[in-house]
Amino acid sequence: MKTILVTTGATVTFKSLLDYVVSEKFIGYLLEKQPVKLIVQYGNETDSNSNNVSKEYFNQGLKAIIESLDLSVSNEFNDKSTTAFKSSKYQLELEVFGFSHNISSYIEESDLVISHAGTGSIIDVLQLKKPLVVVVNDSLMHNHQLQVAQKLSDQNCLLMCEASQLNTDVLTQLCEKVFNHHQFTDLKKPDGKVVEGIIASCF
Predict the structure, then answer these.
(1) Structural domain span for residue 125
(2) Residue limits of the Glycosyl transferase family 28 C-terminal domain (predicted)?
(3) What's the predicted TM-score (pTM) here?
(4) Would the CA dihedral through 202, 139, 122, 196 be positive or negative?
(5) N or C, which terminus of the chain has less Cβ within 10 Å?
């Protein structure tokens, strides 16, 4: 079973990426990869009333695929922070959560990670030597994330696209490149602190 982890960050809801992972285009691609497990970390943004904005937004799209894929809850974890689903129609499993203090365990079990462009998340994946496709949120102001992702893409440490390209086939093409055994270059360990070293090398 192929396992794909989509991680969108915790503080700002990455709406365009969440929309994409529940889209007909991406779900259709997943069904071509059966058996497959999709894990989605949808974010932990809260409003002034402590409502989980990320969860509320993601649930809107989730309802549609629960119906179309005939998904049912297979396990709700004790703290109810993570919910797992199985399909009665397809060889597809889905696991969703807002935030995890142990994201490395999800990364380790994944055959492919699709991530937002936060430098910490990128480094976590690359240090565990997992295939990584980064989606840059190009709607952000002062987007240093694009420069970091581009630098690491130029070094063949990861593949990347921008959120504005999600209405095309670019992301599924990059995923297919990974599953066709694209050979990545391991991340070089910079001197000193890892994150600071990576950022410094990009400017």
Answers:
(1) 2-201
(2) 82-184
(3) 0.91
(4) positive
(5) C
